[in-house]
TrEMBL record:
Keywords: Metal-binding, Oxidoreductase, Zinc. This is (R,R)-butanediol dehydrogenase / meso-butanediol dehydrogenase / diacetyl reductase. Its cofactor is Zn(2+). InterPro entries: ADH-like_C, ADH-like_N, ADH_Zn_CS, GroES-like_sf, NAD(P)-bd_dom_sf. One of its GO terms (molecular function) is zinc ion binding. Residues 1-20 are annotated as: Disordered. PROSITE patterns: ADH_ZINC. GO terms for biological process: small molecule metabolic process. SUPFAM superfamilies: GroES-like, NAD(P)-binding Rossmann-fold domains. Residues 24-143 form the Alcohol dehydrogenase-like N-terminal domain.
Length: 356
């Protein structure tokens, strides 16, 4: 079958790969839709970050070249002999988290923080930029009747946003600032709105992304290339927002997020970083601000896991997929019309769906 595999920086190839066989507790999923993620772009432009290159990954046992794609939905096309909870034809979203099951975090249920964790589509184990993929049955999460198959490819990025908002502790009536409104920023905006945020400020240089932020529920749009975002937020609030989210991954937005948060407020860092940053720690200390990080989500179907919550929130209309999706392309075009298009600062793309 055809799959897009990472061989090195700026070297992703669509090529023929071996199909994996289905083990007793596995299912094969025919991929319907797989989104291109910001972390895929990092791997393409500046990787490897998550991709194992020298040593094989501790859980998957694989190393580059690996098939990419971790935000995907599809239809179960083959089930292993011992699988009871799924049937052929079921529509599913894939929980891509790989974990060891033995470290402290895995033992206490926070397997997304596993010491040797990784992701299908970044760390081995197949990926969604392929015609089909074999996963453990527990990683295929049913979408149910009310979530369209294509929207299943957004369960992963929306779960990142939901996990970030839940970790921030915001509550009804809070003011919020979001720095960066790519797909994860838009997910944060929608989840903050669902959590009862009163006013949501968004700082984002690309006009098309500001429009999508407005469609996602942001009230106050700032172009940081034209306006001082921190000054604008401080003068429009009572000394800063209750909660800020850093979703751009650059030093300027990291510090702007801290400076636009009120004393006693919380800054949640969602980005994955390519570089270190210089920050004045006194901004945290003197205002008793809380600086926290957030990674991924819990990817199971249960009501205490973000995947389960997001599927319910898509089904009942709390979350709106439409502002996130800007294009649909074929697997063969993934480099030129996908990766290169998203890296082009002048493009209006936000989330591109690949249809293998
Ligand atoms: Zn992602
Ligand atoms: Zn572990």
């Amino acid at each position: 079958m055809q799959a897009a595999r990472w061989h090195g920086q700026h070297d992703i190839r669509v090529e023929e790969t071996e199909e994996t066989s289905v083990g007793a507790t596995d299912v094969r999923v025919a991929v319907d839709t797989c989104g291109i993620c910001g972390s895929d772009l990092h791997e393409y432009a500046a990787g490897p970050i998550f991709i194992p290159e020298g040593e094989p990954h501790a859980v998957s046992g694989e190393k580059a070249p690996i098939t990419m794609g971790h935000e995907f939905s599809g239809v179960v096309s083959e089930i292993g002999a011992d699988v009871e909870d799924l049937s052929e034809g079921d529509a599913v979203a894939i929980n891509p988290i790989l974990y060891c099951g033995e470290c402290r975090q895995c033992r206490q249920g926070t397997y997304h923080l596993c010491d040797s964790g990784g992701f299908i589509g970044l760390s081995g184990g197949g990926g969604g930029f392929a015609e089909n993929v074999v996963v453990s049955a527990e990683q295929a999460v049913p979408l149910g009747e009310d979530v369209p198959l294509e929207h299943g490819a957004l369960v992963e990025p929306l779960s990142v946003g939901l996990h970030a908002v839940r970790r921030s502790g915001i509550s009804a009536g809070d003011t919020v600032a979001v720095f960066g409104s790519g797909p994860i920023g838009l997910s944060v905006i929608q989840c903050a709105r669902a959590a009862g945020a009163r006013r949501i400020f968004v700082s984002e240089p690309r006009a098309a992304r500001r429009d999508r932020a407005a469609d996602s529920g942001a009230d106050h749009l700032i172009d940081p290339t034209e306006v001082d975002a921190v000054g604008e937020i401080l003068s429009s609030t009572d000394g800063g927002v209750d909660a800020a989210f850093e979703v751009a991954g650059i030093e300027a937005t990291f510090n702007a997020a801290l400076e636009s948060t009120r004393p006693g407020g919380t800054v949640t860092v969602v980005s994955i970083w390519e570089e270190t940053v210089n920050m004045p720690p006194n901004t945290v200390v003197l205002g008793e601000r809380t600086l926290t990080g957030t990674l991924a989500y819990l990817g199971g179907p249960r009501s205490n896991e973000e995947y389960g919550m997001v599927i319910d929130m898509l089904a009942d209309g709390t979350l709106d997929p439409d502002p996130l999706v800007t294009d649909r392309i074929e697997l063969d075009d993934i480099v030129d019309e996908g990766f290169e298009s998203l890296l082009d600062e002048s493009s209006d793309q936000v989330k591109i769906f690949v249809k293998p």
